[in-house]
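Sharing in case it's useful to others searching the archive later.

Someone asked me privately for the predicted structure of Outer membrane assembly lipoprotein YfiO, so I'm posting the question and my answer publicly. Question first, with the sequence:
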Amino acid sequence: MQRYAFLSTCVITAMLFSLTAGCGWFSKKKPEQPPETLVQEGMKKLRKGKYEDAVDAFEKLKDRYPYSDEALLASLKVADAKYYNKKYDEALLDYKEFEKLHPTNQIIPYVIYQQGMCYYRQRSTIDRDPTYTVKAVQEYRRLKERYPQYEKISKAEDYMDKCLNELADHEYYVGEFYFKNKHYQAALERFAIIEQEYPDYLKMPRVKQYMARCEDILANPVKAEPPMLLKPFSYLFDANW
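And my answer, the predicted structure tokens:
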């Protein structure tokens, strides 16, 4: 009986060991990927234009290794991936968050430049709300003031010049609309904005003529002529106009 009991104990022990080993084998986790590997994976997806997959890879890295140097890079690359995927508002929030958390990082000039680009890419036509155009100019100016030696300053200046011209076009469009509809004071105010804020505007001679016409009409309302647009630009310097 003792021998039988001993054998039974051995069999049960062996079965338990087998089950335990089996469970351990089935529950064995896949080794965690190191942060370097996740960075490489995210960058590979980014280069291939697989932006959603790139965001997933970089977010995974941030979750698993939040205090690593690679997580800092991943935060920036998440914003880049969204920008290239034309999700400009989302990218803008990520760039702003990066600047807020790492204001002294050496990559901040690039971050500010990209914020300007997020606004620039969303600007509309001159007959629409120019908010994005205004904000793009603000970011490019901020970049120029804080980092005048940044390698992309010349590009930022080109974009800013284009935005400023579009803002002047917007004011001109609105001023001309007011003039045509006999709102001479409102028209004058719009043209005055162009004269004050956009002195290098190509159509400045026409702006000044519109201003003179508005001032004359406002000073002599009884003699006001029926509203009409000015003659084409080629007639500006005609002394008999």
